Amino acid sequence: MEIFGIPSQALFGQLLIGLINGSFYALLSLGLAVIFGLLNIINFSHGAQYMMGAFAAYLSLQWFSLNYWAALVLAPVVVGAIGALIERTMLVRLYKLDHLYGLLLTFGLALIIQGLFRNAYGASGMPYAVPEVFMGAVDLGFMFLPKYRAWVIVASMLICFATWFVIERTKLGSYLRAATENPSLVQAFGINVPRMITLTYAFGVGLAAIAGVMAAPIYQVSPMMGADIIIVVFAVVVIGGMGSIMGAILSGFGLGLIEGLTKVVYPEASNTVIFVIMVMVLLIKPAGLFGTEK
Amino acid sequence: MNNPTVSSQSLRHQWVAFALMIAFFAIAPYFVYPIFLMKVMCFALFACAFNLLLGFGGLLSFGHAMFFGTAGYAAAHASKVWGWNPEFSVLFAALSSTALAWVVGLLAIRRQGIYFAMITLALSQMVFFVFLQTPFTGGEDGIQGVPRGLLFGLFDLSDNTAMYLFVMAVFIAGFALVWRIVHSPFGQVLKAIRENEQRALSLGYDTDNFKLIAFVLSGLVAGMAGGTKALVFQLASLTDVHWTMSGEVVLMTLVGGMGTLFGPVVGAAVIVSMQNYLAQLGSWVTVVQGLVFVVCVMLFRKGVIGEIASLLRKPL
Predict the structure, then answer these.
(1) Which residues constitute the domain of residue B201?
(2) Complex prediction ipTM
(3) Does residue B287 sit within a domain?
(4) Which of B59, B129, B286 to mutate to test the interface with A (most CBs of A within 10 A)?
(5) Does residue B5 sit within a domain?
(6) Residue B228, pLDDT above cutoff 90
(7) Which of A141, A144, B49, B269 would staple B221 via disulfide (CB 3.0–4.6 Å)?
(8) Integer angstrom CA distances of residue A231 from A28, A95, A224, A237, B286
(9) Do the domain assignments include residue B44?
């Protein structure tokens, strides 16, 4: 069977890979958007924290023989706690300065984290087994769908939707959105804004860690795994605009799919297609597809 | 950002510092390995170019390696394949990165602040992939064995002394250009935009145009540095286009003092020597660089020259 002259197996296979990559883009850009919304900084160490999530899964298996599910809960808590510590001790001192300092600080932290992990574990990747429940694949008739990949797509969609729901539809979320608009007024209403900022940062970082755990069985666990993906995620964020949570999610999945499609149609451009789209978006709608800047 | 304001009054102390700097680079090769000093000068010029944008224009480009690296490939190709003289190779390199900067600048100035940093980073990653895949760059191997050639067809630059003088000439020319730009009326408007873009706009300045010109000029000077570096090391490789290189130039400027004239030179000297002495420690270099970043941002935002300048109460 062929679609547009492309074997359907290859097409669906690449679309699936695209959707998987898109799940990670969505989770990561969502975390960036949540952090940016309240803290007004771009968390450059997001890729390093994603890597820490993957390592948390790997190490908890090695050291304590904790399985995938335990890691899925533990990793975001541990990495989020480290994030909270970073926010309390360092980022908090930079809020009154130019926002660029936050970017520079988190870039430095990313270098430290990635360097430390590379010293300890070398540059090569380490395999992490797919949890037993998700071994094997389902035959969908037109293609084989590995169960674990299906799980990643479903789980990341659920996490994204839950995050969107909390921020856009609950009381806690309304505090958060209010604090984004006017922190001092929200503080005057008796809400502990500094604590909310810390928790928001920890939450955003936790999302990156969850993405890391989910990525561990698909990509290998390696110290530099977050370094390149985060640049693509920055492009995704520029395309989607950071103003809206849903925008971050949709552009994450959408661009993953487009990237997958490019791998079938014109593989040479698959590395650059997202950046090319970023250029086009900047030319046509500089604020981003879902952005409302100014 | 917190910079000592540059007054247009007497700039004698800057001339003194300039003379000291030239004297240092003239005497140093008698004591220090010349190749190392040439590397310092190339990176110093690169950092000056970057600082023109960040320190004086308030624009943080996180992809400046694309200009440095592109120029390196251009110079290496012109020199090796076309057999051009070094002066034309470096000129061609500077023009290539200027052209690239014009295109990138047009796109990047459409967004401000943090977005500007992300866009330049993403675009430089795109340039990285393009160079990785284009045949003429030699992929992972880079362009190796680039001949240094005969300067003006007369002086053989394979002699390190001649090469040193050439690099020094390029460095001083580039530095003088940045210096002139900073003190020109154009530079003053640029600083006004850094301090308050809305206000500059309301005074009738086409701020986008000023930012674009600053970006292009920065790309030009970065290209002079990148092209020269390719000739010094007779190599153009992907390292110079990678985002880590963009991070390094930010670090150099931060350590030396952003918004100061001589800061980037000092910063480049510090970082390049650090890399040299820590080279045997492998990936600890990255950790140390990260630590320097964190310390600078948290405690030492003015940088070396910035601190000295505020002690002297004079802009340097």
Answers:
(1) 34-242
(2) 0.86
(3) no
(4) B286
(5) no
(6) yes
(7) B49
(8) 11, 24, 12, 10, 18
(9) yes
